[in-house]
Amino acid sequence: TQLLEQSPQFLSIQEGENLTVYCNSSSVFSSLQWYRQEPGEGPVLLVTVVTGGEVKKLKRLTFQFGDARKDSSLHITAAQPGDTGLYLCAGEGNAGNMLTFGGGTRLMVKP
Amino acid sequence: NAGVMQNPRHLVRRRGQEARLRCSPMKGHSHVYWYRQLPEEGLKFMVYLQKENIIDESGMPKERFSAEFPKEGPSILRIQQVVRGDSAAYFCASSPTQNNYGYTFGSGTRLTVV
Fold it and tell me: What value does the mean pLDDT take over residues B47-74?
């Protein structure tokens, strides 16, 4: 059974601060996907990383896939209140049949 | 371009009733996945279907739960004789191919069993 541990579970910071969310596993994934989920809605895909060591940037968000494709991180620079939400990492196995989700990081950015 | 459409958005059922959740994938997407999100828990995979075929149902409870994706019409997740523990948000996702490296999720159906 593949497991993804996401940390921290909760994060409350002031506007303008930086933060990093971690997603760790002992399993290798063919891809690692990051989603954001708003209350009452489904997850929305932010980015997919596929290659070990890959780094992708989306404005103030930087995503990294570990060299061994077992872990990933999401770094947000100069957080804004609009970044508030639930961030989920999800790993896709080689079979491509399913996603294994982490427990999520609930981020609150205070103005 | 309509996204993944799920209905109903909210469903209330009494214990012992049946719940039917519907999912229409994005146009051109032939792969459908169902996930369940229990209160204060993460999303858990339930089942993966292609048209008229169940590909992987390893996450489905063995009893009372079934899923189908007919040639015509939406995918249906059916829960028979619901119990309070079935109360959760059920999400459907679709993709155009397997190993698509990114899924489009619907807004979910929130099932409440009273």
Answer: 93
